Fold SGF29 tudor-like domain.
Amino acid sequence: MSSPDFADILEKSRELDRLRRDQEEVLQEINKMHKKLQAIWGLPHDPKFGGRLWKLPNKAFYITVSKHKAPEVVEKPGDNSLAKLKNLYIQAKDLSENEVNVSNLLLSQLDALLPSGPPGQQRRRIGNDQKRKRIKNDSDISRLSPSMRNQLDACASLKGEQVAARVTAENADKDEWFVVKVMHFDRETKEFEVLDEEPGDDEEGGVQRKYKLHMSCIIPFPKRNDPSGVPEFSPGRHVLAVYPGTTALYKATVVSTPRKRKTDDYLLEFDDDEEDGALPQRMVPFHKVVPLPEGHRQ
């Protein structure tokens, strides 16, 4: 590496120090503002609104601070205290993002300085890269919202379970839904690996088909051992249900519910299931009935 590159590294190091000093100053100002507001208007934290409630004799407002965006502030016109606090948070956010950018540039330049070395050293570098990648993935997961983390946990818990899966592409003329078995769920790509346990026809060689599907293409079935904890679809509601004697799901209309029938079965009328000019009513177990996806095409 030439001397100008070393000079650039030193300059970026000094810039990194400056950014950190600036962040410290902004954080001190934020803390001063918080103490000032708390001393004058502060009340206990209100978890209902995810922020802190502040009150004056004739008004009330909330400060909601998010990890990834500037605070959302509601205040009375003419009072600029919260506007100042908001600007401080925006400054802190910008400085933090700049620090990350400069740090990444420094890492890239330092990696370029490292000699390739013998195979043993190269393997150690690869191991460190893999470790950094794992740390990054863990950090990405930790930054997810609680609802998304819960959703990913729920998807991971479906391994070995049968689910409803849309196996056709987004732009297909019709949606095809099958009963499949979950083999694996990848949290990073949010994709399921599933197996259609029903052997294909002779044209497909009679083998079981495997699919990789995004989590948006999967609907879990209700737990068959807990009918009391399953929401019930009211009569007239459109649902997606397994057609009796098959592993395919089709759009249907609820005629009668398990609670009304005092059984574990819905009484359904499937679309396009006409016999002698009428739609026959068919019984389907409650654990084979799921909500009809929005925009379903059949």
